[in-house]
Amino acid sequence: MQNGKIIFQKSYGKYTYDHDAKTVDNNSLYDIASITKIAASAFALMKLSSEGKFDYKKTLGYYLPELKGSNKENLLIEEVLCHQAGLLPWLPFYQSTLQKNGKHKADYYDKHVSDDFPNEVAHHLFAVKGIQDTIFNMIIKSKLEKQGEYVYSDLGYYFMQRIIEKLSGQSLNVFVSELYSKLGIQLTYQPLKTFSKSLICPTENDHLFRKQLIQGYVHDPGAALMGGVAGHAGLFANAFELAKIMQLFLNKGELNGIRILDSNVVNDYTACHFCPKNRRGLCFEKPEMNSKKDSPVTAECSAESFGHAGFTGTLAWADPKNKLIFVFLSNRVCPSAEENKLAKLGIRGKIHKLLYELTKPN
Q: Which one of 71, 117, 164, 210 is most buried, by most CB atoms within 10 A?
C-alpha cells in the first residue's frame, strides 16, 4: 500500500506441498507469529498509554506486585520492550509436560475439553487448568542475563499480557478485538472460533509437542499452552487486514476518520529509544542504519520506518517518509521449521526493495 491505497496485492502457491492442496488466495489466513507483538501488545499498550493508564518508565513490579522479591521486580518496562532487560530469549515450557518417551503427561493434557482441562492447545489436545500460572512462575524464577544488552526475548510479553489485562479489566483477546472492531479490522486470536479451517494456512507438522499438523492453532508452543492467546504470538490475519493496522500506525493512531491512539504516543513507541547501541523501538523493530550490520529490511527503508517479522515467515513494515506499507505472509514452517530457505534466499528483503523501486518518484 502507498498513500493508503493498494498498489499490489497477489497470492501465490498452495497451502501445502500435496498435489491436491488448496490454492492460496487473498482471503487466506496466516499465523502472523511475532507480528502479534505490535499488532496486539503494542496496540493495547499504546491505547492504555493514550488514556494515561500505562507508563513504560515504570518497573514491572509497579504493575505486578506478584513480582515482589523476584529478580524481575525492578526491571524497567522500557528496557523490556526494547529487549535489553536481560530476559532469556525463551523457555521450553512444553518440555516439562512431556514424558521421557515424548508422550504427553496425563496430568497435563486430555483429549477432551472440561473444567479441569479448558485450554485448547491443538486438535483434541487440552491443557490443564492453571497452566498459565505455571508458565508465569517459570518465567519469574528464570535467571537474568546481562542487562543493557540487546537480546531478543519473548518472555517480556507474558508480563505485558498480564499488565494489559489488569489495566483494561479484560482478557487480551477481548480488549484488542473490541479495538479492532471499532476500526473495521479483522485480526483474530483463536481463528477456528470464527473462521473455517479451510481458510487457514497450516504451519508445522509438529512431531515433538502436539503430534499433528498445526492448522488454525498458534504455531508458537508457549502461546499454544496459553490457550492460543498470548502477547508475543497468537494473531491470525490475511495481508489486507494486517495492512490496515499498519496504516493505523503510519497515520499515527487514526484510521478511516477514527482516532483511537494519541499521535505523540505512536511517535514515541515507533521511535528508537537506545540508539545507536540498540535500534529497537518500544515493541517495534527498526531498520539498521549502520550499513556494516545486518538489517531486518531493505536498505531503502527510511530511519523513521518500523514494523516486525514473524517466525512463520511473515513481515509487516510501514515507512512514514515514503507512505509505504509492505505486508508479506507465508507459512514457511510448513511442513518443518528447520530449513529456513525464505531467510537464506532473502525473499522478503528482495520483494521489499522492488516495492521501493516501483514507487520511487520519476
A: 164
pTM of the entire structure?
0.96
- Domains parsed from the chain with CATH numbers: 30-359 (3.40.710.10)
DSSP annotation of 285: B
Write out pLDDT tens, residues 55-99: 999 999 999 999 999 999 999 999 999 999 999 999 999 999 999
pLDDT in tens, 147-178: 999 999 999 999 999 999 999 999 999 999 99
DSSP states of 87-121: --S---GGGGGB-TTSPBPTTTEESS--SSS-EEE
End-to-end CA distance of the chain: 18
Asked whether the CA dihedral 30, 33, 36, 39 is positive or negative, the reply is: negative
List the strands of the sheet with 125-127, edge to edge. Answer: 109-110, 125-127, 119-122
CA 66 to chain centre: 25
